Amino acid sequence: MFASFVEQDEEVKEIFYQKIKEKMEKEKQKHLDKISEGFFGWLLEPIADIAYTWRRDSEKKQGNSGENSVSWALHFWLPSDAVIVNDLVLEPMPDDYIQIDHLVLNYNGIFVLETKSWDGAFLGSKNKWRMRQGNKWVEVKSPTKQNERHVRLFKTWLEENLPEIFEKVKENIYPIVVFKRAKWIKAENCNMPVVIGGMEAVGEIKKIKGDNISKEQINKIVEAIKKAKPLDHEEWNKKHSKEKNNYQLFQGKNSSGKMYIRIKGTKEDAEKVADEYKNQNYTIIDIKQDKKEKDVWFFYYSK
């Protein structure tokens, strides 16, 4: 028997893709607006439009090609209890989407796989990646950082939708980066395994021992994935705006992806909230007062 496949509803995925496309168009326009403000911007804007679209399309093709062979290796060589979800799309936070190439739910853990079909030789050190071009090493987008984000936001989604399961499995969620066509890879001090091909990915999954996740938990996660839809932003904001003591607290992200907390209350209230986050090992950037709303304070935070 082989591991089984589970798929998201295609109509729902199309809605996700449309929303992602709309977000990319907004990002693209911001990019072009910055260029058009400069000298000769009117001349450079059409060229930048083509270059930006090509770059994003190229990244997408590189990421998508080769995924099928990895998927079939997972299917044939993982145990029959394992469940594989290919091309999983989620919106854990408003306008913050993730596209996971392969999510594997197995008795020993949950595995988030990022697949790359890049040709050539690659060197990764502390999550900074370079590619060999001629006699030079050229920096490329970090697949380990990309997958680190996927894991973080998948945990956010899981905690939001299945909090009781999240508490039990949160220590058993593992990232893996899979290069399909690379000729040579050296990864040093990266925060996740980096392998070549589907069989090496299977090997990494099998390294984790123990019955850490039950069949019932796997089934509940699968059902939640099947039902996953884009967020209702208004409802999400209502849910995450909570009264606490005599102040209101709001969580969110800015357009650059930085996480922030807004507190409607006093500076002392904001300082108390910041201390709570510090106690949870978050890094806090200085508390500031909103320029327009004098009773609102905010700070950015990160892990």
Write a structural description:
This is Nuclease. It comes from Thermoanaerobacterium thermosaccharolyticum (Clostridium thermosaccharolyticum). Residues 62-177 form the NERD domain. The protein has two domains: 63-227, Trna Endonuclease, Chain: A, domain 1, CATH 3.40.1350; 241-302, no CATH class. The protein starts with a strand and ends with a strand. It has helices at 10-36, 41-64, 67-77, 143-161, 163-169, 197-207, 215-227, 233-240, 267-279; strands at 4-6, 83-93, 96-106, 109-116, 120-125, 128-133, 136-140, 173-179, 182-188, 194-196, 242-244, 247-253, 259-264, 283-284, 288-289, 296-302. Strand 12 and strand 13 form a beta hairpin. With 303 residues, it is α+β, with helices and mostly antiparallel strands. The model is unreliable at 61-66 (pLDDT under 50). The strands form three sheets. The protein has a six-stranded mixed beta sheet with strand order 1-2-3-4-8-10, sandwiched between helices. The longest helix is centred in the first third of the chain and has 27 residues, at 10-36. Helix 1 runs antiparallel to helix 2 (41-64), helix 3 crosses helix 6 (197-207) and helix 4 crosses helix 5. 24% of the residues are buried.
